[in-house]
Amino acid sequence: MIANPDRAQKPIGKPCDTPGRDAGNCPVRDVIDRIAGKWSTLILEALAKRPYRFGELRRLVPDISQRMLTQTLRDLQRDGYIDREVFPTKPPSVEYRMTDLGRSLFEPLSKVLQWAGDNHALVRAAREKYDQSELA
After folding, report:
1. What is the DSSP letter of 10?
2. Which superkingdom (predicted)?
3. How far apart are CA 99 and CA 21, in angstroms?
4. What's phi and psi for 83, nearest 5 deg?
5. Element containing residue 52 per DSSP (H, E)
6. CB-based contacts of 118, cutoff 8 Å, min separation 6
7. Model confidence over 47-70: pLDDT tens digits?
8. Please, which contacts does 65-69 make with residues 24 or more away whose CB atoms are closer than 8 Å?
9. SS3 track for 66-119
10. Of 4, 37, 94, 125, which residue has the fewest beta carbons closer than 10 angstroms?
C-alpha cells in the first residue's frame, strides 16, 4: 500500500515557504503541530469510536501521565476537535467526545493511521538498514 512516487501530486494550497508569506501564520504548521503530538493522535483515535471519561482514556493510553493527558485534552478542546461535558454527580464526572470538526479531521487522519499500521515493519526495517550503514 505504498504510494506511487511517479504519480503527480496536486499542490495543496499556498506553500508556507512562499516569499512574502508569514511562516508564523502557516496553516500547515499551525494545525499539524498540534495533531502530530505524541498523544493527540492516540486520543483522537479513541474518541473517534465513542465518548470516554478521563479515567478510561488514561487506561487506554497507560504510558501517558495524568498531567500530559489533561494538557492534551485541553489543547484538543481549544482547537475545537473535542468537547468536554461535566456531569453533576458527586464527585463530578467528565466525558470527552469528538466534535464535527474533530470527525472531519479524523477522516483523513485515519488513512495515515492505517498507512502506519500497514507499513510499520517496512519503516522499522528501513531505519535498521540506515542505522547499520551509519555504523559501517
Report:
1. P
2. Bacteria
3. 31
4. -115, 150
5. strand 52-53
6. 1
7. 999 999 999 999 999 899 999 999
8. 68/39, 69/39, 69/43
9. HHHHHHHHHHHHHCCCEEEEEECCCCCEEEEEECHHHHHHHHHHHHHHHHHHHH
10. 4
Can you give the residue ranges of every domain in the chain? Answer: 27-135
> Measured between alpha carbons, how far is 102 from 81 in angstroms, rounded to an integer?
4
Task: Give whole-number Cα distances, 3 to 6, 69, 103, 109, 112, in Å.
Answer: 9, 33, 24, 16, 12
Q: What dihedral do alpha carbons 87, 92, 98, 102 form, nearest 10°?
A: 120
8 Å CB contact between 97 and 82:
yes
Fold observed for domain 27-135: Arc Repressor Mutant, subunit A (1.10.10)
pTM strictly above 0.70 = yes
Q: Which amino acid is at 132?
A: Q
What DSSP state is assigned to residue 22? Answer: -
CA distances from 117 to 104, 110, 128 (A): 21, 11, 18
Angle between helices 40-49 and 27-35 (to 10 degrees): 70
